[in-house]
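Many introductory courses stop at the sequence. We go one step further.
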Amino acid sequence: MLTGKTNEERIWNYLTAAGMTACGAAGLMGNLYAESGLIPTNLQNTYEKKLGYTDAAYTAAVDGEAYTNFAKDGAGYGLAQWTYHTRKAALLAFAKAAGKSVGDLETQLAFLVHELRESYKLVHYVLVTATDVKTASNVVLLQFERPADQGDAVKLKRAQYGKVYYDKFAAKQAAEGGPKMNKKPVSFLQTDKRWASKPYRVKGENSTIGDSGCGPTAAAMLLSTLTGKNITPEDTCKWSVDHGYKALGNGTYYAYFAPQFAAYGIKCWQLNWVNAYHNPKATSFDETVKYLKQGYYAIALMKKGTWTGGGHFVVLWWADGKVRINDPASTRDNRVNGNLATFKNEAAYFWIVDAREYNNSGKLVDGSMAEVKPEDVPQAAPGVTAERKATGAAKSFDKKLAGTYAVTAGSGLHIRNVAGSKTGSMVVLSCGTKVQNYGYYTEVNGVKWLYIQVTYQGVKYTGFSSGQYLRKQ
C-alpha cells in the first residue's frame, strides 16, 4: 500500500521501505524524474504523434487490449521509460497478473524493485548500500537506464535531481528524529502448553522445547513476523534437530540461526565472535542498537544473571527510542523491559536479522546505513551458492592427509572459525557428510584439526574440523 500525499512522497516511501538507503532512493528517483517526470502513465513524447495517443489514451488502449503492440512498438513507457520489448512485455504481464493497469503507480514500483532484485543485482546492491547520491545515480544511469547520452553533463544533472529528493525527504526525516519504532514482533513462549512438553532432543538426552528450545523459539517469533506465516517453536525445533543444530546436553548451536533464516530467504548473521559478557570493552551491544534503529531485529545470547542461570536466547527490537525484549521464557517486566546497562553486561553474542523492508525503515537519523557485508551472510537465493570462510589460517601441511572424508560424529560435527573446540562454530555438519581436505591442518593439544571445504545446505564452508570425527574415504 502506498503512503504519502504526492507521487514523489509515495515513491520515496516505497523505495525506502524496500530497503534502499536514502541516497539510493534519491539517486534512483533523480533518474526516474529525468526519464518520466515521475509520471507512471508517461508515453515517450516523440511517440505520441507517431502512435496517435496521449499518455492516458495509450494506457487505456493497452489495458483494454485495443492496442496490442505495447511490447514491440519501441516507445518508452512508465516511470523508468521501459523500452526494450522483453522488459515491456514483462511489465505488462506483471500488471495483468496483479489485476492492475499497466500505468498503476504501485504496480510499476513493485515491478521496478522486482526487476532490480532479479535482473540488475549489482545496481540493487548499490541502491541498498549507497552512502552518497552521486554513486547511486550513476549506477542507475549507466547500468539500468542506459540512455543514448551518458556524458558528464547528464550524470551531473541526474545526480542534482536526486539531491533535490534527498534534501526534501531524508533531511526532513532527520529533523523529525528518524524512525521512532519497529513493528512489534510476534511473541511466543517456549513454555506454552501447546509445545512445552514436546521433544527437542538428540540421542542420549530427554530435553523438551520448554526447557531447551529458547533459540528456535526466538527464531520462530521473527520468522512468523517476517513471513506472515504461523511458524511455531515446534516447527523450528524440528528443523534444528533435522539439520544437526541441537547440542547434546545443551540448547542450540550458535550456527543455527543463519541457515534457519536463510531457509526462508531472510538475511541473518552473527555480528562478531567477540564475547561481550562482562566485557566493558566490547562494542557488540552498541553496534546491535545501531542496526535496531534501522529496522533490523536481533537475537541475543544472554549469560548468567537476570535472564538466565546459564545460557538463554532473547529477541530484540526498537520502539519509542528504546530497546525492547521478547523473552521466550518470561513476560515479567524485568525480563522484557530490563535495565539496559544490566542487559549489556550480561549479553554475550548477537545475531542480526534483516527486517528493514518489513519495518518500512532501513536508515539512520542522518540517512546513513550501518555497513553490511553480504559476502559474510549465507543466502538462500536460487542458483547462487553463498560462501563462508574461516578467519583462521592452517599452520601445517601433510600431503598424505589430502582427500575426501566423512563425518563420523553421531550428533554432528562443527566447522570452526579457528582450530580448537572453544572457538566459534560456523555450521554443524550431520553425520555422514562428505568433506574435502587438501592436506592443510592445525594441531591443537595433539589433535589434528583439518582445514576442510564443503558445500552444505547451499552454502560453501571452508574452516576447521576435528580429525577425530572425520574418516578418510
